[in-house]
Design a protein that fits this description.
The protein is an all-alpha fold. It has 6 helices and no strands.
């Protein structure tokens, strides 16, 4: 079922997106500082409804939150790092053993899940979930760096 357009939750999300876009536009290069969205939101509420008065929370989109806090420069560097890891994955997946490639594909899929989840929530990279992301990413990179395959082990 679809939510009616007058749904308060939907309006709040749209207003938070608007706030993040306005904040990013006004502080494009370096952003407002890591963790500064809510403080900035209280002082500079760009929404028509004054959302900061009744719903003080960051935008529910990791990418918009990051762009507003670290600016286009920081966001670009983050995306560049993630694309570099993805490129590394696709270059190395052909050179590892079959059993390692299945594990690597699973780890890479979990890596992608964090990013798709980030479109709807900011929890993808916070606290223990962020630690899990780093752990899975480390395991993926470690597997891809393995020079020995099963064929080499049994020779």
């Amino acid at each position: 079922s679809t939510a009616p357009l007058d749904d308060r939750s939907l309006k709040t999300r749209i207003n938070l997106i608007s706030q993040a876009l306005s904040t990013t536009k006004d502080n494009a290069l370096l952003g407002i500082g890591g963790g500064g969205f809510m403080t900035h939101f209280v002082n500079y509420d760009y929404t028509n409804e004054g959302v900061a008065r009744y719903y003080l929370a960051p935008v529910h989109n990791f990418f918009l939150l990051m762009a507003s806090e670290v600016g286009i420069l920081g966001f670009f560097l983050f995306v560049l790092a993630m694309l570099t890891i993805a490129r590394f994955f696709f270059e190395r997946i052909r050179h590892i053993g079959r059993e390692f490639s299945f594990i690597s594909i699973g780890l890479f899929s979990s890596f992608l899940t964090f990013f798709f989840n980030g479109l709807w929530t900011i929890r993808s990279f916070e606290d223990r979930v962020g630690l899990l992301f780093c752990l899975l990413l480390g395991l993926l990179v470690n597997l891809l760096l393995q020079k020995r395959t099963r064929a080499h082990i049994y020779q």
